Amino acid sequence: MISEVNTLYDFKTDRNQSEKEMLPYERFMKYGAESLSSAELLAIIIRTGTGRNSALDIARNVLQLGGDIETGLNRLHHISIEELMSLDGIGQVKAVKLKCIAELSRRMAVEQRKAKVDFRSPETVADYYMEQLRHEEREYVILVSLNNKLQPLNETVISVGTVNSSLLSPREIYRHALKCGAVYVVLLHNHPGGDPTPSRADLNITEKVRKSGELLDIRLVDHIIIGDNSFISFKKERLLN
Q: Which of 2, 93, 133, 153 could connect to 190 by a Cys-Cys bridge, CB 3.0–4.6 Å?
C-alpha cells in the first residue's frame, strides 16, 4: 500500500513538474489563452529569446518598463519603440509588433463601447471616449457634431496641444459644425495628468463656445473632460449656464 501511494505521489509530482516546464505556446495549445499570464502571452508574440534570456524572460522585462506609469500590459501604451528596443532580445520588428498589440487592444475596447453610446447620457459618452483619450500624453480636443436626434454626424479632432494646454477657438469649432449641418455639438478633451477637474481656462472657453453656439442656433450639449478612469461632465455638474 505504501509503495502504491508513493508511486501515485511520484506520478503527480512528475506531471506537475512537466506542466511547469511547458513553454507558453504549448500551454496555450493545451489549456487555452486564458490559462496564460500576461508575460506568457507576450512571450508567444516575442517567439525567440537570446543566449542570455528566454522569450519569457524578455516578456517579463517588457512588463517592467514604464516605471510607475500604468501597470502590466497597459504600460505598452506609454512605452516607445526606442525603449522597447533598449531591451536585450527586442529588435525593431518585435517592438513594432508589441506596439501593434497595444493599439489593437485599445481599438477592441473602443468598439465594444461604441454601440452603447447615447449622447444624452454623459456616462456612456465618457465610457466610449475613455479608452481613446486616457492613455494620451498630449491634450486632444474632440468635437462631435450631432443632428436634431442627437445622433453623430461627424467627429473631428479640433486641436492637439502640449501636456499643459491646447489651442481652441469657438470659430474653429463652429466652422466644422456648420460644415456638416450640426444642430447640437459635444466637446471632449483629456487631461494627461489624470485629474479631470476643469481649469479656469476650461470654464472660460466652454462659456465662450456655448454663447457662440446660441448665436448660430447650434447648442452645446456637453463638455466632457476625460481623466485617468474618471471624467467630469459640464452638463452633469450643471456648469453649462
A: 133
